[in-house]
Design brief:
It is a single chain. The relative contact order is 0.14. The chain has a three-stranded mixed β-sheet with strand order 2-1-3. The radius of gyration is 22 Å and the shape is globular. The chain has ten helices and three strands; from the N terminus they run βααβαααβααααα. Helix 1 packs across helix 10 and helix 3 runs antiparallel to helix 5. About 75% of the residues lie in helices and about 5% in strands.
Length: about 325
């Protein structure tokens, strides 16, 4: 008789993408380029904000933490994903699978919390501009960012520990390119009902509460914008929120499609959505925040001029 909570399987097989056939080199090259671009874009955002005085504001401070979350997500998922693209099914230790889920969940939860903090920052700037500098001071911003990370690490640690203490007796095959929460539970031969309830309960402070904060913030922002008489004023107020609103929309729509809509039986659809969620979102966030942002463009130009003076021409 096996001891309770004893892990019976030691390895996990990730099947990855099984239908690439002769397109493996092409997709591998594309994903490597995406990964390199993602890391470069997010690192560039961090460098620009830290080196440019005109970007030393709460919005850009939180943006650097969002970039850190994207770097953590990409670095956690991409290496094994690239391995499955090139080699097909790969075998990893069960400990590595649990660890991958932990850092994946931490990065996603921290992004949820940071997006809600950024929404509150936009709410303060537009709905309460006279008190903005006193409310969103440096100390308060550091506390908000620190609490976002700490809350993510602690809550996901509780979830991950509870999952790891289950019995896992196989099969040890995961038909995906990374270890996600519902797929890990499928490997367990224990009763997972209590674990599922715990995960739902603990998701309240890191998923539903941040979404509620974002929703309420933008309702208030919309009310203020509609009261502005001039078209120029409305456009200026909305432009300060457009990048964040786009990022929030992409993040939550994809999250909803993966974990709420019944796509579990359509593995190809589930993998495609997960690919966009884990690879696409970290790539497009730097693009969203820099494409129409004059401050970031100007800081980038100055950085290029300092680094390569001939580029001034």
């Amino acid at each position: 008789m096996q001891e309770k909570n004893f892990t019976l399987i030691s390895d996990v097989i990730l099947l990855g993408f099984q239908n690439l056939q002769n397109f493996k080199p092409l997709f591998f090259s594309i994903f490597v380029l995406i990964y390199f671009t993602t890391i470069s874009g997010n690192v560039l955002i961090i460098l620009l904000v830290s080196s440019s005085k005109n970007l030393h504001s709460p919005m850009y401070f939180f943006l650097t933490h969002l970039s850190l979350a994207d770097i953590l997500l990409s670095t956690n998922i991409a290496p094994q994903m690239l391995s499955t693209v090139l080699r097909g099914a790969i075998t990893i230790s069960f400990t590595s699978c649990i660890s991958q889920f932990y850092f994946f969940a931490v990065s996603e939860c921290s992004e949820c919390l940071l997006l809600s903090v950024m929404a509150y920052d936009r709410f303060s700037a537009i709905c309460n501009p006279l008190h903005y500098n006193s409310v969103m001071n440096s100390a308060f911003c550091v506390k908000l960012a620190t609490m976002s990370w700490l809350l993510s690490f602690l809550i996901i640690l509780i979830d991950t520990t509870t999952i790891a203490l289950l019995q896992f007796c196989g099969p040890n095959v995961i038909n995906h390119f990374f270890c996600d929460y519902p797929l890990i539970l499928e490997l367990s031969c224990s009763d997972v009902f209590v674990v599922q309830l715990e995960v739902i309960f603990l998701s309240l402070p890191v998923l539903f509460v941040p979404f509620a904060i974002i929703l309420v913030s933008y309702i208030c922002i919309l009310q203020v914008i509609l009261k502005i008489s001039s078209i120029t004023g409305k456009h200026k107020a909305f432009s300060t929120c457009s990048s964040h609103l786009t990022s929030v929309s992409v993040f939550y729509i994809t999250l909803f499609c993966i974990y709420v809509l019944p796509t579990g039986q359509l593995l190809s659809t589930s993998k495609l959505l997960s690919l966009f969620y884990t690879v696409g979102t970290p790539l497009i966030n730097p693009i969203i925040y820099s494409l129409r942002n004059k401050d970031i463009k100007e800081s980038f130009r100055k950085l290029m001029n300092r680094t390569w003076p001939p580029c001034k021409t």
